[in-house]
Amino acid sequence: AFLDLTGLNEIEGVWKGSTTLPCAYVPVEDFVEHSLAWTAVHDQSSGTIFRRDSSGDHVLLSEYRDRVSVPKDAPGNVSLHILNLEISDRGSYTCQVTWRASNNSLIVKEITTKLEVVKVAATKPIIKAGELGLTVPVGARTSLTCVARGSPPISYRWFRGTPGGKAQLLSSQDELVWDNLQPSDAGMYFCEAQNR
After folding, report:
1. Which InterPro entries does this UniProt record tie to the protein (predicted)?
2. Architecture of the domain made up of 126-195
């Protein structure tokens, strides 16, 4: 249908994880997105979290600052991405889009999604072991990736050395990358994954 918003009625997010509340429409040639607002109703408060208009993007509630975003370069996709979910984030979220028609009239549509935030049983990270004895030619580009599952958020650290022995910290990312391998890069590498 004409300029209808699509989304979901209900979404379940995991505490300390991230989620996306979908809101999208099919752009129509003679209608320009004039403004977008995401509002929330919680147990203790309600208000506009995010607003996009001709002056740019604005996060209006301090408890969402640095935690919410809406895609910039995806016409028709006005979904709200929330990082580091808190239990207090549960509630109803309304996506409201206003379009300006070529005759300057405004059309407003909205859709509401209920967000439930659940705590999952805390689990220690489990690392999926890679193959041992990897041989790579000198000058090649290669990488080692640490894959762990468990309660989010998970942080990673790569070391060169032996676990329990002397080790040198190389990276705080899940991937360790070499652009130009040298014989001096040969050795034992290990990854550490950590959560709460």
Report:
1. Ig-like_dom (IPR007110), Ig-like_dom_sf (IPR036179), Ig-like_fold (IPR013783), Ig_sub (IPR003599), Ig_V-set (IPR013106), VSIG4 (IPR039939)
2. Sandwich (2.60)
